[in-house]
Specification:
homodimer; 597 residues; alpha+beta; Butyryl-Coa Dehydrogenase, subunit A, domain 1; Butyryl-CoA Dehydrogenase, subunit A, domain 2; two-stranded antiparallel sheet; 20 helices
């Protein structure tokens, strides 16, 4: 059964105890972000997710979106839910007050996003894409365009999209063919075909603001000749009201493995009127502002669905009676024990739990650094926060989505045959989770981003805001009476990451294919170590809380300690073979001729 | 695109070079199983798979089976394909000549099965279940029942099923409730409900022979009170013609994640006439004969779909143009290089390839030992072959199906967004592959079987036919001029397996939960080491062939060497964290209270 209760206690733990309230309330504009203010917001978001969005998740999967003559109908209930969503102010949560937003920090926003994705990934994509488009416009559009487009987008009355992919190019956008011909009035006429456009057409918003990558007539070939354009579905009158339909329309939707309630559109632009965003031929830069927002959001999708899968698995593991505990019947009154008594089921559940809580901590850490990078008065601190975010964006995107899918698969396994049929809804998690490993740059591309652009940037500067605190933590805690026993194995894992970093830096300098050959394993190694660090910090916080007499919540903190230990014992050792693979290099991988495959 | 060419060269390699023709032709009844005889059979099977079954794979997925008023209609083309399948003699391939079969060895049969599963898992289930039922009846039914039922089953005119699962019990069959009331004529009246019955009802065969687990009125509680019954869909007249309909009918079919062309039925038995198979209350024993056959067959399903996924991924990786090689453009005449030039794509393809070929070798080894256990004149050799098969059955089932799913997921990833939509057919592999990890005993159950029943059986006797040849191989080859460099790392992996075995044997003796906590990791460790051993043997064969001037096939053998090296360098190191996890024991896993999940 699809069941979901937002993990509010753990979210509070991450925001206020693990990452800590202090660094949040120290930021200009965040002075009031104490639990008094943030907890009720999270509780409201939880209600929305659990009561409005979750019940629509299966409905959306079964009905899917329907395309007819250029119009896309979302599944039953989506319109009403979207209306409630906008009216509740959820579209404006993190947007700047300048454009009608509430200006709340990412530290809060990311947790709200997690709930939405856990309850209904398909639904979350509609406002999610708008958020990305909002960021791109806010940073790169002219004041005039911002004034026209941002307020209704923040209200949710208009939604956003990103139009990158074309049939022959996805990762390699340098190949794209969509044309933008300048007009005398300063606008452009956009012509071309795009595919895989999430929310490209739907019936939730009054207007759709497409951000479209296209090429001007005199643009240089390849990636350096791409510009970004704003192309609305309906042209906008000077008073902000909707004018005539623009030449942008959906020509079909995809039939997909999952996220069936999300309209994935084929788009046709036929001399559609558009406006340049940012500088000519610098479209990729503007698009990356959007893409980085989206990449973190997609990571959180993985976390959300991973949490929902975990909870649904726990529900079944407590309910399904099958076999007896190997240590003697636990429920002799029943025909059999619930399967949660079996170690192999525990192994699955603990694995999912350790991944999810670790990923939540990582997302919380990155969200806090985003807040710092955007708000801190200290330029040095802002810079290090920006470096950290740049470094961690591909890690969050790839790691959290890989694990979301793995968790969904574990949940299916716990349900056994009942997980493979539609009735319980867990196979939907598997199908929905799979896309997140692909879109906004496949996870392989994330890995290349990490080793190619982030690892070596500015002589390794991006690595420092991660490596330094981790080193210091190990030094400070290696003899800790309580967690010291876990710090030793962790230091080994961190050592593997340091060795891998040095190895790739050297080998990749001589031969970039060596970096490419190591990329995926390096990203996973990075992620595993980052989560290990956060688990140790969580254990430290838990020990302190228990020592300070947190008796009323002793169970919560003890679970943290058990899960931290599980992570260090059972998951962190995976660091070793990743280093071994990296050190093996590209030779065996590249030895075979193409034709021999 | 779903594309599949049966890997005939690799199948020949496994059968004749790696496992070797000698041990096959030495068996009574197999004297003629030289390549002259086996190659044409494999070629015919390949044609059937590629030309008849593969084109129906997508059709079956889209149409699915349709249930109406107790009748199940298979998708378009399945009836014709099944007819061709029977007429081609494929249902009788491995059946004994005594019952109209061709008596061909498992060494050949398993390779044919792989092709069928690669082309169309759903289709393969119909004859596959019949094979399992054939084995159970052949070993446990009375001569009279065998004479009535086996010949038409071998012909494929009648098909078979296994009816185990009930709504409230799958793994824990001790809970089952279906009743069998003895009648004066020696038959029984069977009443109860079963679910998840593959091929429980369909339109391919004239009659369906259900093997049904049920409980007699005076039977002991639990697993020791279960008997096996033969319950035909149509009663059979003394002359073998079909009589009236029996009280066994399908009441519905499941809507599933995948294998949609396989009818997964809910069955109702309402005083259906049945006959006891084997002894009263010993139904599990008889069922296990069937189940072991099926478990190996399910493993081969994983391999088949993994191979099809690999080939479909290779097809796309050679065709999709995106980006340039990091070592300089490989196809400067094209707009971009095919993605197979990128190391990260290579990593995926090599991983899939190393798994598939390793798994094919393992399946080939086990198949050969089955042949030996059934045919050898040497009782000691027969015993060791039987021990080996018992040991390896859970490994083959769980490892090959886990990897089949992983490979399907890798294939989706290589296709990117194009893998997530239906058009290319690779997402079907993901959906189809997922069931194999579940049915015939979930992979967690396989792991418990390995550590609980197989590892310690007869003081570790089952382990010997694996551990002894591996130890000898290491000793004999550690200084080999060519493969010696790979033997060192392999010996480390094997050492991890030995340590893990000793650890579990000791810890599990004191506390069976410790064995349960280690089971899944132990099975994977076992599988990884077994494949490593086979990869080293393959490398040895390849080196010898190259030295003997196998110039015309140099590419084939060189690819073996490259893939062997890739396996040892990139995959085998995964042994280390598995041992670490096993040694960590159950403590962290079992620490939390049920309520804390």
């Amino acid at each position: 059964m699809q069941t979901y209760q937002a993990p509010l206690r753990d979210m509070r733990f991450v925001m206020h105890e693990l990452i800590g309230t202090e660094s949040l309330v120290a930021l200009p504009g965040c002075e009031e972000m104490t639990p008094d203010l943030t907890d009720p917001i999270l509780e409201e978001a939880a209600k929305l997710a659990q009561e409005v969005l979750l019940p629509l998740n299966v409905v959306g999967d079964i009905e899917g979106c329907v395309y007819e003559n250029g119009v896309v109908r979302t599944p039953t209930g989506f319109k009403e839910a979207y209306k409630a969503f906008c009216e509740g102010g959820w579209t404006s949560l993190a947007a700047s007050a300048e454009w009608g937003g509430q200006g709340l920090p990412e530290s809060l926003n990311k947790q709200v996003e997690e709930m939405l994705c856990a309850a209904n990934i398909s639904f979350s994509l509609y406002p999610g894409l708008t958020q990305g488009a909002y960021h791109a416009l806010r940073h790169h559009a002219s004041q005039e365009l911002k004034e026209i487009y941002l307020p209704p987008m923040v209200e949710g009355r208009w939604s956003g999209t990103m139009n990158l992919t074309e049939p022959h190019c996805g990762t390699d956008l340098g190949l794209l063919r969509t044309k933008a011909v300048p007009q005398e009035d300063g606008s452009y006429l956009i012509t071309g075909n795009k595919i895989f456009i999430s929310a490209g057409e739907h019936d939730l918003a009054e207007n759709i603001v497409h951000l479209v990558l296209a090429r001007m007539p005199d643009a240089p070939a390849g990636i350096k000749g791409i510009s970004l354009f704003l192309v609305p579905k309906f042209l906008v009158n000077p008073d902000g009201s909707l004018g005539p339909r623009n030449g942008a329309k959906a020509t079909g939707i995809e039939h997909k493995l999952g996220i069936k309630a999300s309209a994935t559109c084929q788009m046709s632009f036929d001399e559609a009127k558009g406006w340049l965003i940012g500088e000519p031929n610098k479209g990729m830069r503007a698009m990356f502002t959007m893409m980085n927002t989206e990449r973190l959001a997609v990571g959180v999708q993985g976390l959300g669905v991973g949490e929902a899968a975990y909870q649904s698995a726990v529900f079944y593991a407590k309910e399904r009676l099958q076999g007896r505990s190997l240590s003697g019947a636990k429920h002799p009154d029943k025909a059999a024990d619930p399967i949660i008594v079996h170690p192999d089921i525990r192994r699955s559940l603990m694995t999912m739990r350790a991944w999810n809580e670790g990923c939540r901590a990582l997302a919380g850490w990155v969200a806090r650094e985003i807040d710092i990078s955007e708000r801190s008065n200290d330029p040095e601190r802002r810079q290090s926060a920006e470096d950290f975010t740049a470094l961690m964006t591909p890690v969050v995107k790839a790691l959290l989505t890989d694990l979301g899918f793995e968790n969904a698969s574990q949940a299916v396994q716990i349900y056994g045959g009942h997980g493979y049929i539609r009735d319980h809804g867990v196979e939907q998690y598997l199908r929905d989770a799979r896309i997140a490993m692909i879109y906004e740059g496949t996870n392989g591309i994330q890995a290349l981003d990490l080793v190619g652009r982030k690892m070596g940037a500015h002589m390794g500067r991006f690595l420092r805001p991660f490596f330094h605190p981790v080193s210091e933590f190990i030094e400070a805690n290696k003899d800790d009476a309580q967690i010291g026993v876990l710090v030793g194995p962790f230091a080994k894992g961190f050592g593997a990451l340091q060795l891998a970093t040095g190895h790739i830096a050297q080998a990749g300098l001589k031969d970039p294919e060596e970096a490419g050959a190591a990329a995926t394993e390096y990203l996973r190694l990075f992620g595993i170590v980052a989560l290990g660090y956060l688990w140790l910090r969580a254990a430290k916080v838990a020990n302190a809380a228990l020592a300070n007499g947190g008796a009323s919540e002793a169970e919560f903190y003890k679970s943290k300690l058990a899960t931290a230990r599980f992570y260090i014992e059972r998951i962190l050792p995976q660091a070793a073979p990743l280093l071994a693979g990296i050190k093996a290099g590209k030779a065996a991988m590249m030895a075979m001729e193409e034709a021999a495959f």
